[in-house]
Design goal:
Shape: globular
CATH class of the largest domain: Alpha Beta
Largest sheet: 10 strands, mixed
Oligomer: single chain
Strand content: 15-25%
Order of helices and strands: HHEHEHEHEEEEHEHEHEHEEHH
CATH architecture of the largest domain: 3-Layer(aba) Sandwich
Number of strands: 12
CATH superfamily of the largest domain: Periplasmic binding protein-like II
CATH topology of the largest domain: D-Maltodextrin-Binding Protein, domain 2
Helix content: 25-40%
Length: 298
Amino acid sequence: MKRSILNPLALSSAVLLGLGGPALAQTSSVLNVATGSKGGTYATMYKNLGDICTSASWLRERQTSGSVESVDLLLSNQVSLAFVQLDVLKARDQIDGDPRAKEIRTLLPLHQEEVHLIARKPTKGFLGRVSGVTKFSELARKKVGAWGGSVVTANVLRAKSGVNFEVSAYPTRDAALAALGNGQVDAVLAVVGQPADWVKALNPQQYNLLPLDISPDKVGGFYQKAKLIYPDFGAAVDTYSVQSLLVTRNFKTPEKRQQLLKYQACARAKLTSLQEDEGMHPKWNDVTFKAAGWPDYK
């Protein structure tokens, strides 16, 4: 019997040189995706997309502290995709004047994320004097904790509303909530898609969800009116929401374009499954994939 001239070493060389045929040559490069905190809405929705679009095995998750870090990683070429808030992108472009922001493109417009304003329940002190806040407009000259993209949201709302409070930035959600618990801040502002598990875990005997009593004409263009619905905290609470996006840079490399457009097409085609399959995040029911006020990746 005539033996093959391809020994193991030669076969390995053939594969490395792309001589092993189309199946061996068509290997997608790995792209990193900034999602946000562990167990958060973005991280869960990223996992849901991976479960539905199984061809997305070339994506790797990178958890971050939120939209600000995710945008920084995207602009510095540390990741290729990022889940972010629209107001963070607008602030980077319009307020910071960062020219790199104009190279960011929307791969998938997603859901609206609600502003959660959380404070300790008011208490009565000496002579029955009430201490604490019950709504956004009472935050003047007080301290508000935030982290990630919520820091940007807090500053935008402060500027647009005219309610002059101090924004204290924290590295993580846990650090901000700890500051609220021990009285270092008067409230915590968090942008997160409801229902958020960590919000549901808060003790309603200790904390309140506060209404954002801001006139819509002051925040139009950035935010939409919304309501927070957490039964344990009582009646629905008036608030605002901001669009969330899965964004990428304006890549022109054919291989990257093929990968990204295939992922985009799969998500659009599988939206009904994302909305109806058990175990998917409830925020998929708010997704329409319609234009979101930022240039699309095409």
